[in-house]
Amino acid sequence: MSELTHGDDDAAVNALRSAVMRLSRRLKHQRVDESLSPTEMSVLGTLARCGTATPGELARKEHVQPPSMTRIVALLEHKGLVSLEPHPEDRRQKVVAQTERAEAMLEESRRKRNAWLATLVEDLDEDEWAKLREAAPVLEKLAHL
């Protein structure tokens, strides 16, 4: 689909955007650690998915400027959620790794958010739930394009 040409497509895109934004805002309120910003949580999530990364790689993945990522990493390090380790091939660089504390916090956050979503899903009928299960991989793909 390269171009939206139908009113139905425009309406569907608008409804999808609106629903995803509302659901995202509601999910953000299900945080375990209120002291972390959404950006800090996102960086920890990226490290959990992708493994260690240089601050520059994290900046690209998170769509922020390198100086901003340097500040974010310093805050996370100060909170004991990441550690800086020597780069395996370039000793001039450092790689960022999440700590066990960050892993535990992310797991608790996922558990809390999943439980909250599960309570919402209980209000769906079987047909709606089946459609949502089918849509999940497509939404995941959109999230990573």
List the helices and strands and how they pair.
Blueprint: H1 7-28, H2 38-50, H3 55-62, H4 66-78, E1 82-86, E2 94-98, H5 100-121, H6 126-143
Antiparallel strand pairs: 1-2
Structure characterization notes:
With 145 residues, the chain is mainly α. 66% of the residues lie in helices and 7% in strands. The protein is built from six helices and two strands, in the order ααααββαα. It has helices spanning 7-28, 38-50, 55-62, 66-78, 100-121, 126-143, and strands at 82-86, 94-98. A two-stranded antiparallel ribbon has the order 1-2. A hairpin with a 7-residue loop joins strand 1 and strand 2. Helix 3 (55-62) packs across helix 4 (66-78). The model has no long low-confidence stretch (mean pLDDT 89).
Provide a short characterization of the protein structure:
This protein is mainly α and 145 residues long. The protein contains six helices and two strands.
The order of strands across the largest sheet is 1-2
Structural class: mainly alpha
Overall 3D form? globular
Number of strands: 2
Quaternary state reads single chain
Largest sheet: 2 strands, antiparallel
Alpha-carbon distance between the two ends: 14 Å
Approximately how much beta-strand content do the residues carry? 5-15%
The string of secondary-structure elements, in order, is HHHHEEHH
Low-confidence parts: none
Helix content: 55-70%
Mean pLDDT: 89
Radius of gyration: 18 Å
Count of helix runs = 6
